[in-house]
Design brief:
22% strand; binds guanosine-5'-monophosphate; five-stranded antiparallel β-sheet; binds zinc ion
């Protein structure tokens, strides 16, 4: 989608610290990290929100989770722990309308989230 920030990152039109890329998924460092380790994992195909995902997106959504887990583990957080979350809609604070998982680690993460 031409006016989507994360689509532009996938297309290389906006710079980002890319940490992973394959034919379906891109991951990059969050520009405003909320933890020492904070990366975003997104589908290259534009999907505005989890609300818009369909049964045929199940494998893609699973892949996002696998990539997020792998990146956190490879960064050294397999034992200490990490969190993978997705915000959907205004009450959850979704600010970018392109599906993304946050992978967070490197500090004790409060629960329940704010
Ligand atoms: P949301 O609030 O939608 O769950 O998460 C959006 C995330 O995108 C935020 O954590 C924010 O810091 C991050 N973000 C917003 N703009 C940019 C950007 O231009 N580059 C990168 N790398 N991250 C961004
Ligand atoms: Zn997009």
């Amino acid at each position: 989608m031409s006016d989507c920030l994360f689509c532009k990152i996938c297309e290389g039109k906006i710079p980002a610290a890319i940490t992973y890329r394959d034919e379906e998924v891109v991951a990059f460092k969050d520009i405003g990290p909320k933890a020492p380790f904070h990366q975003l994992v997104i589908p290259i195909r534009h999907i505005a929100s989890l609300v818009e995902t369909k049964p045929e997106d199940a494998a893609l959504l699973g892949k996002l989770m696998l990539v997020a887990s792998k990146l956190a583990a490879e960064a050294g957080f397999a034992a200490s722990g990490f969190r993978v979350v997705a915000n959907a809609g205004p009450d959850a604070g979704q600010s970018v309308p392109h599906v993304h998982l946050h992978a967070l680690a490197g500090r004790s993460l409060g629960w329940p989230p704010g």
